[in-house]
Design goal:
five-stranded antiparallel sheet, 12 strands, mainly beta, Jelly Rolls
Length: about 110
Amino acid sequence: MAAKPYAIDADKNHKNRQAVYWENLTEGDTGDAVYLGGGIYNVTAVGTFGQSAELQYSPDGTNYVSIDSTNLTFSAAGTYNFEMPRGYYKPVLSGSGTTDIDFYLAPLPSDAA
């Protein structure tokens, strides 16, 4: 299992909220946590799914929980708009199988949910 760094996509930032992404997550990877100031985000996962990819949340950067297992756990490519509280976020892969997933969080205007 490897920790994967995130990158900031300045072209997709909105009102001082940053767009972030993790690329090439493979079997057992966990993305490095990023602090987001809250708001509505588009959450997208794409790639080759041999495992599921889940977005997890922590208010303190230590204790992570699943935040919406219905919409924010991906076993195939998908996208979902979600209102996120302030805190730390990271993608976590689980299961077994050949996997190469890119995970994106992009801020949306507050009326986009």
